[in-house]
Design brief:
Length: about 220
């Protein structure tokens, strides 16, 4: 019995060595793929190249353990990005799908002209879009985007707007492309815009220059 038991132990021992050798060889042959291709969709060619180069500079050695925080940080550093999705394609490709932010207005800050994106970020003046309305004053960007939500829910077309005027009291004036100025209070904005729209489309008020809606439930018109 003792001899049989010893033989059994020897057999297990040799099997352990054999399996261990096979596993070591397999691990040696495994290729932990490095990211070789980065495809950016949604930005123009030059912007895509810059973003792709920044991601490659992370030295993405292991495709299966990418540092998503660092990649997210690089993508979010581009102010043109509204949102994005990253998809890993085996064996070594990274696809980045980007939705570009909408440019909604222009503003001058400390002598420099910027565009405001719908993502709330300031974007360098590289687009020369003269159709966008200009903002006079120094509003908080988020306050402006909140104001835009009221406009979007009103009947006044954004395409008709020439410029915005912001006041320290957090009140807005709007100048239309036909030179009509709309004065709004800092409360009841949606209701005031709807009242103003009624006068803008009334044929009896063709020569109006100023529509003053700063007083609740009242409209004052100056020709």
């Amino acid at each position: 019995m003792h001899i049989k038991k010893s033989r059994r132990v020897l057999i297990y021992f040799f099997l352990l060595i054999l399996l261990g050798s096979i596993n070591n060889i397999s691990l040696y042959k495994i290729n932990f793929n490095k990211v070789k291709n980065i495809k950016i969709t949604g930005l123009d060619v030059s912007e895509s190249k810059i973003l792709s180069k920044k991601i490659k500079n992370l030295n993405l050695e292991n495709f299966f353990s990418l540092n998503s925080d660092k990649i997210n940080q690089i993508i979010n550093s581009n102010n043109l990005v509204e949102n994005y999705k990253i998809i890993k394609i085996y064996p070594s490709t990274l696809n980045v799908y980007i939705k570009k932010t909408d440019l909604v207005a222009k503003i001058n800050l400390e002598g420099e002209l910027y565009y405001i994106g719908s993502n709330g970020k300031l974007i360098d003046n590289n687009f020369l879009n003269d159709e966008l309305p200009y903002i006079f004053g120094k509003p908080n960007i988020q306050d402006f985007l909140t104001f835009l939500k009221f406009l979007d829910n009103s009947k006044i077309s954004y395409e008709e707007i020439n410029s915005f005027y912001y006041f320290p009291s957090k009140r807005w004036d709007i100048k239309l492309k036909n030179n009509v100025v709309i004065k709004l209070s800092n409360t009841n904005i949606k209701k005031s815009l709807d009242l103003v729209y009624g006068f803008l489309n009334n044929s009896g008020f063709k020569n109006i220059k100023i529509i003053d809606a700063r007083i609740n439930d009242k409209i004052i018109i100056n020709g």
